[in-house]
Amino acid sequence: MMGDPNLKEYLQEIREYPILKAKEEKRLFKLCIDGDEKARENLITSNLRLVVSIAKKYVNCGLPFIDLIEEGNVGLIYAVERFDPEKGCRFSTYATCWIKHSICRAITEKNQLVRIPAYMKKIISQCKEQIAIMIRESGKTPTVQEVVERTNLQKTKKSIIHEALMTTQALESMQSLYTLNANQDWIEDRKTNNTLQQIFDKSEFEWIMGIIDGLDSKRAQVIRLRYGLDGKSPMTLKEIASLLKLTKERIRQIEKETLSMLRQIIKRRKASDCAL
């Protein structure tokens, strides 16, 4: 990963850019909104290390490390251009969503060019089906060994399963998400502005993304459309209702129930962790 001299030079260079304090970050964003290019550049360079730290998590997913960094930088730039400092959250929280989204989209496009053997597709399908069931039963993401035992697959296929699940987890981690504040008991029919990380805390955020496929098909579809999980723009309740041929109120209800369900899974997981 570190054999490329250009990569070494780049990593050395970005260490020189200081991490911004909240007050300075907010000041620079105000200047950036007014068209100050220097402020925009400072906001980007001060977060380049954030991109690297995120990119490291995807080194086994099909793209060279330097390519992951480049894709993450695209997401960072996009985040700088869209961020609203008046919403109350730190830029690093917001940018993380766009950085991961950009990286995962690139991984998805790369993997679409690679032919997956039929037997691998069958293994992946088996694994995903059982993982969904196991998550609903226990509220926890199972280990590779638990999946092997549950699916009765040969132990010799364990490494294949592990690799398949690693890739699947990365591709499912599409993270340019929007949603309502967790304390609201109603959902407006508009494209929401806060990130999912304002509902679930940082330690829960990536984990909860892995269980979206464990939902029944209707709930999963509503969540994916509402929060842009497939890399598309989030849709309003009215738009989703029209697409799925349901009432807007029914879509609102499905969204609210599903968010509540996800919180309950988190709660059970925490209780389980405390019992260990």
UniProtKB/TrEMBL annotation:
Keyword DNA-binding set for record: yes
Name the record gives this protein: RNA polymerase sigma factor
Domain (RNA polymerase sigma-70): residue spans on this chain: 67-80, 236-262
Protein's GO biological process: DNA-templated transcription initiation
GO molecular function list: DNA binding; sigma factor activity
Record's keyword annotation contains Transcription regulation: yes
UniProt organism field: Uabimicrobium amorphum
Family, per entry: Belongs to the sigma-70 factor family.
InterPro entries in alphabetical order: RNA_pol_sigma-70_dom (IPR014284), RNA_pol_sigma70 (IPR000943), RNA_pol_sigma70_r2 (IPR007627), RNA_pol_sigma70_r4 (IPR007630), RNA_pol_sigma_r2 (IPR013325), RNA_pol_sigma_r3/r4-like (IPR013324), Sigma-70_RNA_pol_init_factors (IPR050239), WH-like_DNA-bd_sf (IPR036388)
Source domain of life: Bacteria
Pfam families: Sigma70_r2, Sigma70_r4
General function of this protein: Sigma factors are initiation factors that promote the attachment of RNA polymerase to specific initiation sites and are then released.
UniProtKB keywords: DNA-binding, Sigma factor, Transcription, Transcription regulation
